[in-house]
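REVIEWER CHECKLIST
Item 1: Sequence provided? yes
Item 2: Single chain? yes
Item 3: Sequence as submitted:
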Amino acid sequence: MPTPLIAGNWKMNGSRALVEAFGRAFHDADLPEGVAVALMVPFPYLEAAERAFDGSCLTLGAQTLSDQPAGAFTGEVSGEMLRECGARMVLVGHSERRTLFGEDDAAVLARVRAALAVELTPVLCVGETLEERDAARTEAVVLGQLEAVFDALQPAERARLVVAYEPVWAIGTGRTATPEQAQVVHAAIRERLVRYDAELAAAMQVLYGGSMKAANAAELLAQPDIDGGLIGGASLKVDDFLAICQSAG
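Item 4: Structure as written out by the authors:
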């Protein structure tokens, strides 16, 4: 059974004050045994978060990275820079990076490799749009995005990833997949991972990233193939995020 992981993605939100509030709250948080917690904060707050989260249960993560280690790439941030600022995880292929910034499967794979090269844990995001779901293409799209990365990696590299299923139609829209709908896709992901290695499939953390919040977390997390959550808006509220983490026990 994979270790439950609750990961918050602040996107382009937050402040130093919020970083410090989370640091204080999670220093003293009473969480279920074995639950792992991470926060993906914006680049400018990484060093402040490293200080604020020190000694707490929070693992620090970033929201994306360059596929290049260094060079004349104005505005980009390398994996080594993220490591130096305290990050240990990084989102790769988030739906907003795919749709707003044009990252295709090849770009996602390059970023996964860049993360692995500097010992960052990539959280590979996969998911379908409303149009793709309505066209009954959910599994084809989701598993295609998964295979575009996993097919290109060595077995030891695959074992270092986390997968997050985020139905794009349920992010920030007020719509949420039912626990049963989410479970169907998570089970399909797990089944496809078995083709690579049964032990890999059993150990892989597969998170649900479709508007999980305090009110629905327990029911979603009770599904057999949902190992945690990638939390958006609710991760900006200390009490809500704590409640989700407590639901993961």
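Item 5: Key structural point noted by reviewer: The beta strands are 5-9, 36-40, 58-62, 89-92, 121-126, 162-165, 206-208, 228-231.
Item 6: Recommendation: ____
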